[in-house]
């Protein structure tokens, strides 16, 4: 797939793709245990060592019942004997490389000139952490989670459809679905639309579709399969958790979020017109498929996220269809930039790489301001929260049960790292990441609400409050600010935090 030719040109292509994959990885950074990885990494660790997390394991296990990601990662670690931290790093780097390779396989079929092709690859790798409007997603995450390899597999599937070998796309999108059902279903949807768009007998019908922008009935309903509970009556606790995630409330989006949703369709309408004028038939049909797919999925999202009666369907997050469109938008925009602006001018390429990658690098440094840009295995950290988590992992019993500020992930300098994933110990529910889990698994709502409410007012907790948590939940350890250590048996500290036993 796209490694066409032999000899020096093929070697140079390989070197080029490796270079841009490495540049993209260095630009986006690496932050294991952050954000969603607080769920996925914890599940992998639990699969490898069932004695971990004897309390509240539902906050990471239940969400992963619909994916093979954690069990596959655990099997890889057992087979290779590689430490989990190094296995995660390896597969994160490999996922980025596969995304770049798949994008190359696509762009080579849409553009003929090397300038355009490499421009597309350069833009995608620079924009890996481009936010996707209103979805809380990036094109790729700064840690290993199933969406990264699933994205690569979906893109390979798209490249096979473009090549006219549609049946070769099936194993790619099926595995993507097994890794990440929602993104896999959206990938299947686009591949079906693209297949119909490329079908010669349907070109006249598609011409009318392009003119009227009428959605094609091609997108599947596969995204509904793993979530049968969506047809049940929602609880108030689940509704409260849902309200904490603004991307579920489409009709409350800001103007710029709507611009981010509609703008790509306008861009691909312009691409379609330009490609038709220049006789680039495959690019025109590709743009047509994106328009049909985007219009249909937006229509579905506006229906699902509108009436109160359909609110349980909102957890399917239908606006995530934009993720794939943003990948294509970066790829095609970069190709046009390479064709018409960068060309073969070395200084222009240097300026573009410096501005694009440098700008995204600075954005990531602001996002993870309290943490090293590359959190590599075995590397010491200056982050006081991660120092505490490391000490806990190596110095407390595996059945220790912790409590800490339920809003700790949003604390200055914490940078949204997950306690369970990095400390490898059980902890009472938090008010940030566990809230997101509850939107997917409503049955966790009562336990989550009870635990979060019991920790309300944490910054003012006194010894009596910690003792209450111990009586009510069995918590025996806490992570507190230095000023809260009075009356506790504290065994470790740094400049900001204490790790203490509750008497």
Describe this entry's structure for a reader.
With 503 residues, the chain is mainly alpha-helical. It folds into two domains: 8-30 and 83-344, no CATH class; 384-501, no CATH class. The chain has helices at residues 8-28, 37-48, 58-61, 69-80, 84-110, 114-126, 147-162, 166-179, 181-198, 203-212, 236-243, 255-277, 281-304, 322-342, 346-367, 384-395, 419-423, 433-440, 445-454, 463-473, and strands at 131-132, 137-138, 401-404, 426-427, 477-481, 489-493, 497-501. The protein has a five-stranded mixed beta sheet, with helices on one face. Strands 1-2 form a two-stranded antiparallel sheet. Helix 1 (8-28) packs across helix 5, helix 2 (37-48) packs across helix 4 (69-80) and helix 5 packs antiparallel against helix 6. The longest helix has 27 residues, at 84-110.
Beta content comes to under 5%
Return the string of H and E elements: HHHHHHEEHHHHHHHHHHEHEHHHEEE
Mean pLDDT: 87
| Biggest sheet, spatial arrangement of strands | 4-3-5-7-6
Find the count of extended strands (DSSP E, 2+ residues). Answer: 7
Low-confidence stretches: 213-231, 238-242
Report helical residue fraction. 55-70%
Rg over CA atoms, rounded to whole Å, is 24 Å
Gap from first CA to last CA: 63 Å
Assembly state of the chains shown: single chain
Shape: elongated
- Provide the domain count: 2
Treating each run of at least 4 consecutive H or I residues as one helix, how many helices?
20
Computed structural class: mainly alpha
Q: Major β-sheet, in short?
A: 5 strands, mixed
């Amino acid at each position: 797939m796209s490694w066409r030719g032999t000899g020096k040109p093929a070697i140079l292509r390989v070197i080029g793709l490796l270079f841009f994959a490495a540049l993209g990885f260095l630009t986006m950074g690496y932050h294991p245990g952050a954000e969603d990885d607080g769920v996925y990494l914890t599940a992998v660790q639990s699969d490898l060592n069932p004695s971990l997390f004897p309390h509240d394991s539902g906050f990471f296990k239940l969400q992963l019942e619909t994916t093979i990601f954690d069990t596959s990662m655990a099997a890889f670690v057992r087979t290779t004997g590689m430490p989990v931290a190094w296995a995660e790093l390896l597969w994160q780097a490999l996922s980025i490389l596969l995304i770049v390779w798949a994008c190359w396989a696509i762009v080579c079929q849409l553009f003929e000139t090397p300038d355009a092709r490499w421009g597309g690859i350069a833009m995608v790798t620079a924009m890996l952490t481009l936010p996707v409007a209103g979805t809380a997603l990036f094109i790729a995450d700064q840690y290993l989670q199933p969406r990264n390899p699933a994205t690569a597999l979906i893109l390979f599937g798209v490249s096979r459809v473009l090549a006219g070998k549609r049946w070769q796309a099936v194993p790619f999108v099926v595995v993507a679905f097994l890794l990440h059902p929602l993104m896999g279903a959206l990938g299947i949807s686009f591949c079906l639309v693209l297949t119909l768009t490329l079908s010669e007998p349907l070109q006249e019908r598609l011409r009318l579709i392009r003119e009227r922008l009428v959605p094609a009935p091609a997108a599947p309903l596969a995204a509904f399969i793993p979530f049968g509970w969506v047809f049940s009556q929602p609880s108030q606790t689940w509704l409260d958790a849902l309200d904490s995630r603004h991307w579920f409330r489409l009709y409350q989006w800001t103007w710029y979020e709507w611009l981010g949703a509609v703008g790509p369709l306008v861009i691909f309408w312009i691409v379609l017109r330009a490609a038709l004028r220049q006789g680039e038939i495959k690019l025109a049909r590709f743009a047509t498929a994106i328009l049909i797919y985007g219009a249909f999925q937006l229509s579905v999202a506006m229906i699902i996220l509108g009436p109160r009666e359909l609110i349980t369907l909102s957890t399917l997050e239908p606006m995530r269809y934009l993720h794939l469109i943003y990948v294509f938008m970066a790829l095609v925009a970069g190709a046009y930039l390479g064709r018409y602006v960068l060309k073969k001018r070395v200084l222009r390429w240097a300026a573009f790489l410096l501005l694009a990658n440098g700008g995204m690098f600075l954005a990531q440094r602001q996002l993870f301001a309290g943490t090293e840009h590359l959190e590599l295995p075995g590397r010491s950290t200056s982050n006081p929260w991660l120092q505490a988590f490391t000490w806990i992992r190596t110095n407390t019993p595996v059945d220790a049960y912790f409590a800490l500020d339920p809003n700790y992930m949003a604390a200055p300098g914490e940078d949204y790292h997950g306690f369970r994933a990095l400390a490898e110990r059980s902890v009472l529910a938090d008010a940030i990441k566990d809230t997101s889990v509850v939107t997917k698994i409503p049955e966790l709502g009562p336990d989550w609400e009870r635990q979060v409410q019991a920790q309300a007012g944490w910054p003012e907790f006194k010894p009596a409050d910690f003792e209450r948590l111990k009586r009510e939940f069995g918590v025996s350890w806490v992570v507190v600010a230095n000023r809260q250590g009075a009356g506790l048996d504290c065994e470790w500290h740094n400049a900001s935090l204490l790790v203490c036993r509750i008497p």
